[in-house]
Amino acid sequence: MASVIKSMSTLFVMVMVSLFITTQVMAQQGPRAVPVEVSKAQIRTMAPVSWVAGTVVSFDDANISAEVAGRLVEVADEGDQVKQGGVLARIDDVLIKSDLIVARAEVAGEEANLTFLRREVERLQRLAKQNNAAVTQLEQTLSQRDASKNKLEAAKARLQIVQERLDRTVMRAPFAGVVVRRAKRAGEWVDSGDEVLQLVDADNLEIETTAPVMLKPYLTLGQVLMFKTDRQQGTATLRAVVPVADRQSRLLRLRLDITDGEWLAGQPVRVALPTALPQDVLTVPRDALVLRRGSSHLFKLNNDSMAEQVFVQLGIASGDFIQVSGDLNNGDQVVIRGNERLRPGMAVSVKGGTAQ
């Protein structure tokens, strides 16, 4: 029994000695450094923005209407992709083809009559030189020839009209697109001007939005603006500012060319419009901020690789960056990952080395 107690005492002494040595080593090495990722505070040119509602629209969106009256024999289905010049619908052309035959026969008859009168004029002119034909008869034939020329021109015009009507029984796509709506079905009668379907170019898209008149001085063609939805964001180039304000809303209409991303025609978006001239400001990535009720702060690294807490005031935001003011300088390294675990004065280790 005494030997057991002696062994336990010896083990206890060894454990205490080990703990003492470990504590001394940790005291000499200091606390363990917290791994973080960093970026740099930088001067950027930014402008304050106001978010306004907009809509993604197709650059080409047309309601296709019939140009001649008749019964529809074919109409493209909703969802059909059609190339430029492709067939969208066909109208029964039987009666127009009959009119075309009559018009061609009329032209042929007038051509034959004009040929006869021209020969008759030549014959009478030869006889007149020999005093064998009355001048009045020649003049009458010349008048008939000229009248026949006019009738032939009119007949050719009628033929061209009938040919155009026949060609327009086939309704073709003015641009490549998708059929999004059918107003008529095969078998229905349409008159000239009746809407048959809607064609939309789903590939060439732009944004339609409006802006208060007071923002006009800050809008320039070619300007790149941000826009977003709840799940995605992108950039668009300001293509057009209609320089006439709506009488009721006092808003200007804007058109922006989408430069990236996948979007749908009709999709609602919000567009960031500048509300002042751009200015150079000190910015940090949004991820550097630690937001608390009533205050915002971040952690920068000092020369000893220690985390130094800096309280900041927030300003202009654009994309992933935001303006800050506080005890921070251009080029200072700020923590963007791991800052939620930091406390002032903690040692840190930068993943992948010092940020450039």
Helix-strand pattern: HEEEEEEEHHEEEEEEEEEEEEEEEE
The CATH architecture classification of the largest domain is Beta Barrel
The largest β sheet comes out as: 6 strands, antiparallel
Count all strands and give the number.
Answer: 23
Structural class: alpha+beta
The outline comes out as elongated
Quote the distance from N terminus to C terminus: 68 Å
Radius of gyration based on Cα positions? 42 Å
**Strand line-up across the major sheet:** 2-17-21-20-19-18
Percent range for helical residues? 25-40%
Write down the overall mean pLDDT.
86
Oligomer: single chain
**Parts with pLDDT < 50 across at least 5 consecutive residues:** 25-29
Question: What labels describe this entry?
Answer:
alpha+beta, conserved putative lor/sdh protein from methanococcus maripaludis s2 fold, OB fold (Dihydrolipoamide Acetyltransferase, E2P), Elongation Factor Tu (Ef-tu), domain 3, 6-stranded antiparallel β-sheet
Describe the structure.
The protein has 356 residues and is of the alpha+beta class. The chain folds into four domains: 95 residues, conserved putative lor/sdh protein from methanococcus maripaludis s2 fold (Beta Barrel), CATH 2.40.420; 83 residues, Elongation Factor Tu (Ef-tu), domain 3 (Beta Barrel), CATH 2.40.30; 62 residues, OB fold (Dihydrolipoamide Acetyltransferase, E2P) (Beta Barrel); 74 residues, Helix hairpin bin (Helix Hairpins). Helices cover 27% and strands 38% of the residues. The strands form five sheets. The chain has a six-stranded antiparallel sheet, with no helix packed on it. Strands 3-12-15-14-13-16 form a six-stranded antiparallel β-barrel. A four-stranded antiparallel sheet has the order 4-11-9-6, with no helix packed on it. The radius of gyration is 42 Å and the shape is elongated. About 1% of the residues have low confidence.
